[in-house]
Amino acid sequence: MTLTRADFVGVMTNAVAGLGLAPDAAMVTFPIDMFLPGSDISPMEARKREFYDGLTRWRSALAGDGAGETPMVRVQGASAEDALARANHLMLANRWGDGLPLWPPTRARVDWILRGTARPRRQTLGAFPPRGGVTTVESCAVALAMAGGRPEYLPVLVAAVEAFLDHESGSEQLQAASGSAFPVVIVNGPVGAAIRLNAGFGCLGPDPQRPAGASIGRALRLLQQNLGGALPGLGTMANYGGLRYTNVVFAEDEASLPRGWASHATERHGFAPGQSSISLAFANGATNIRRRGAKRETPEEDALQGMHRMADFMRVPNLAGLAGYEHGTPGILMIPGVVAQTMAGLGWTKASMRDFLWEHSRIPLDHLRRAGGPAWIEIDTSKVARESLGLDPWPITASPDNFVIVVAGGGHPTNSYWLQGYSPGVVGRLVEASPAMETLLAEAERDLGPR
Amino acid sequence: MIELEFHDPSGAIEVKQLHAARLPTLERARIGFVSNEQWQAYRMLPKLKALLEADFPGIEVLPIDAFPQGNAVIGSEETAALVKQSGVHGVIIGNAA
Fold first, then answer.
1. Residues A237 and A341 occupy one common structural domain
2. Is A369 helix (H, G, I), strand (E, B) or coil?
């Protein structure tokens, strides 16, 4: 039985469901106040019988097995518009939506989405944590249909879901955790441009001509909620939940990679150039960095100042980032192609940039101490992280190789972008080719207009 | 009337195992704690230990740190194996984070 907070009931029932148990559990809950420093814990004595009953008398109220076919639901309306409105209202009332308008995942629409893959619709990808919802190719198609997606996006979503479900991603804990982690999906290879994933101007935001990232990320989010149980305040205790409407899905601007610079997929995962792949990490923050100088800096000065400024943005006690201290990432740095070209011309490589950032983002130990950082580091499960307290200044990650540097963003040298990491791992997956891709892309050209 | 029929997106849950049977009594039972050691667990769990020991003759309540503590380890297979090996009849999990 469990002693927990009243607002954690959803988290706990998700967790037991994820273990394959009926989604209820013996719990004694108290308001958050009792779990704060200096609280009055005397209510425990008044309610001690509940603890005793939890160990001796409790019975699950849910005896049935919830597995089986996904049911269909029906709505009726006086007109097509009325039916659509009722469908949206039902999805919100049932906590299946995100508050924005949804496409009802009708059989026809889901079947259309499934044209994007040769996999059987019932193929199981795993149990979506923490609730443990059975995740199939069809459930990915349902989410993508709801999110306004298209069939050619499905292989990228399936690969992202497979990476998400990989234990190495840390998703099981991050789904429920308070730190507002959101998945970042970096796409490499020809599939990015083919399906109109944005790698340039506004690549993390809305773009009517390149809507793939928003739809894929929104579909992933709907799966996180509907199969994974990550409902705000019930199944996910994320204080803020930023960037969770669409998560972050973009393509690396491989066309702008300087000669000799490998793509993220090749560097981090060893995928061959020309292979389509995704890489999934988690972040908990996003910030724009004004990278460029303002006066008459030489190219060398401009580059060096920009590097220092980016390192300065990273030199913060992101203690959530300890989750990835050893094997994950402190974050994802996005630099536009024009900056990458200039840096490469000055002799910089992704590797030398990582070395620089690692060295110059280190935090003086006395600064870390005054912020209480060592207390979190001392209790970290990673021996490497714990032993890092012997280093002064303290490196924000165990190795320079952990920094992810991706060439992406509009062709303008002023800004770079830092997605602060909260990522136990960085998980890569190849994207399967869609057998109908040529036809699907022609239909996209017809529907969305020329590129 | 226009009818729209669509998939329930909440999917299915596969129940693979039953919850553990409850204990017939706490007298002479052996009880352990698994805790993330946060959120005042260091005060609350000893309180609970004292209550159990006062109310049930012969009960053995293991120290609150008998098993590994912390968010990252309390759900691990290694901790589960240690709990099983310990021979406890029941476990109280303290986890509010």
1. yes
2. helix
User: Which pLDDT score is estimated for A63?
Assistant: 53
Using DSSP's 3-state secondary structure scheme, residue B64 falls into coil
Give A351 to chain B, closest Cα distance, Å. 31
Q: Cα distance from B87 to chain A (closest Cα, Å)?
A: 16
Q: Are A10 and A118 contained in the same domain?
A: no
What would the pLDDT profile of A252-286 be if each residue is shown by its tens digit? 999 999 999 999 999 999 999 999 999 999 999 99
How many structural domains compose chain A? 2
Whether residue A436 is contained in a domain is answered as yes
Same domain? For A26 and A142 the reply is no
Q: How far is CA A62 from the centre of its chain?
A: 32
Residues A3 and A123 in one domain: no
Per DSSP, the residues of A244-258 read TTT-EEEE--GGGPP
**Are the Cβ atoms of B5 and A74 closer than 8 angstroms?**
yes
Question: Which residue did the predictor score with more confidence, A20 or A120?
Answer: A120
Assigned token pair, A219: 């579909």
Residues of A in contact with B24 (CB under 8 A): 56
- Secondary structure class of B30 (helix, strand, coil): strand
Q: Are residues A1 and A148 in the same domain?
A: no
Contacts of A106 in chain B (CB under 8 A): 4-7
Same domain, A135 and A9: no
The set of residues, in sequence order, having a beta carbon less than 8 Å from that of A428 and lying 6+ positions away, is A163, A265, A268, A269, A271, A277, A278, A279, A280
Q: How far apart are CA A292 and CA A341, in angstroms?
A: 14
Closest chain B C-alpha to A388 CA, distance in angstroms: 18
| Residue in chain A nearest B22 by alpha carbon | A56
Q: For residue A16, give its domain range.
A: 1-32
- Do the beta carbons of residue A373 and residue A319 sit within 8 Å? yes
B23-41 pLDDT, tens per residue? 999 999 999 999 988 888 8
Residue A58 domain-assigned (yes or no): no
A290 within domain boundaries:
yes
What is the pLDDT confidence band of residue B88, given thresholds at 50, 70 and 90?
very high
Verify that A28 and A116 share a domain, yes or no.
Answer: no
What confidence score (pLDDT) does residue A69 get?
Answer: 57
Q: Are residues A313 and A430 in the same domain?
A: yes
Length of chain B: 97
Which CA distances in Å does A138 have to A161, A276, A302, A329, B4? 12, 22, 50, 32, 19
